[in-house]
Structures are given as structure tokens and as C-alpha cells.
Description:
Blueprint: E1 20-21, H1 27-31, E2 37-38, E3 42-47, H2 53-67, E4 73-77, H3 82-91, E5 100-102, H4 113-121, E6 127-131, H5 133-144, H6 148-163, E7 174-178, H7 191-196, E8 199-205, E9 215-222, E10 231-235, E11 241-243, H8 245-276
Parallel strand pairs: 3-7, 3-8, 4-5, 4-6, 6-7
Antiparallel strand pairs: 1-2, 8-9, 9-10, 10-11
Amino acid sequence: xxxxxVRMCDLSFNPKLFETFRCGTALDELLSSHQGLPRGVxxxxxxxxxxxxxxxxxxxxxNVQKRYPQARILFISAEMNEIDLxxxxxxxxxxxxxxxxxxESDFDNLxxxxxxxxxxxxxxxxxxxxxxxxxxxGIIKDEENIRMKDAESWxxxxxxxxxxxxxxxxxNCTFLTIQQVTKSGNFVGSNRLKHSxxxxxxxxxxxxxNIYSDRFITFSKHRRGDVGVKxxxxxxxxxxxxxxxxxxxxxxxxxxxxxxxAGEIRNFADEFDKLFTPE
Length: 279
């Protein structure tokens, strides 16, 4: 007999779960319909090579850290080591105070990264960013001598428990996971992984063949907000990400007009049909 059938009207949650972390930029409007990054969700970030995935995520974390000093934020780096990020922080000094966990393959098997990662994450965090999911998955697979599919399951299970606040601080953790893509720009990962995430954030070039073309953020899947909306941005050498808010507002205004006109046309068509449809 099933004992996990529920009615939504019988469930109750801490109102804090539905508060968001705001970055203070136009990106907040894309992150959710409630403005900002929700708690207890999993957002995956994919994009063309060199488009700035890591920079955008670190910029988000730094902005949230500045606005919410008490928030517990963790960046897990499975691709860049301490030396790499030192050079990176010289360009973007606002990232220098973010807590970072460096994870590297241990070919001598003296350190079990999975146990270290699991222990640290279970301390309880508001936001955990992983760069990248696929690289971390591969490290766990090699060190634990398991299949990639099993490593993915281990990570997903850990993430889901943290989403629900099953940690020392009972914090509903949000994960931002950068994921690799194929040469054609498609998502790398199983269907299970794709269905497990709350939203898919894509960072794209207007012209994928030209690294200097305009860059934009959009969501191709979004349970907490809109899909298909574009927010253009640029990366500077001054340690900031600049969002083209004016262009964003203009495109939003155009979409609103298009939606209104489409609705008026549908209403006109319905009235027209009524005139010539026998009762």
C-alpha cells in the first residue's frame, strides 16, 4: 500500500524556504519569477567555450555574498587549482573572499575526495556552486572505482538531500552546477540528470563561430521562471560583469506588445467564428 500519497493543501513549509537571494542586477529577473535565486533548487549552467560560465557564476556568488554577509556560500573547483584561481582573482578581485574547496584527482588514492566533499557539504550551505559537475563526477568515478552512472547518482542523491535541508544547519541548499557540452553545444549528461534539475541556464554567443560576438544568458528549462528570455552581458577586465539592462527592457517591452497583439487577434478570430457558426 502506498504511504507517500499527499495533498498539497496538507503540506506546510517554512516561509523562509520561498525567500530568494538577489544579486542586485538584471539577472535577478531571469533567475526566478520572484526575483533572485531561490532556495533548495538545482540550476545547471551550460554554454559555448570561452563564453564566461565560471565568471558569471562567481560574479553571482560575490554579489550575493556582498548583499547577504551571513549567507553560507561555497564554490567547489574541480577544474582550476589554487594557482589558476590566483591569476583569475587578479582580474576579478571581488571573488577573493569566496570560500573555495579545491578538488583534484588523487592518483595515489591517499585522499578520498568523495568523503571530504560529502562531509563539508553536509555542514550546511545556502548556495554551493560546482565547476564542473562532469569533472567532479569523473574524479569520484576514478577514485571510488565505480561507473560514471553511479557517480552521478551519488552526487544527485547528495544534492537532493541538501535541497531538503538534511544537513547540520538544516539549510535548504541551492546548487549551481556548471556542466560541459559537446562540440555542437549540447548538454552532456543523462536524461535523469536533465530531469533532476530545476532550471537550465545557457550562456551563448549570438554567433557561435565568433568569440567576439555578443553574449547572452537565457533559460531553456525553468520551473521557477520564464524560458527564452535573453539578457546580454559583457565581461570586463575591471572585475565586473556588465548586463545590458536597457536592451533587456526593450526586448521585454517588445515581447509584451507581441503577446498583447496575439491575444487581441485570437479574441477577434473567436468573435468572427461566432458570427458565422450556426447555433
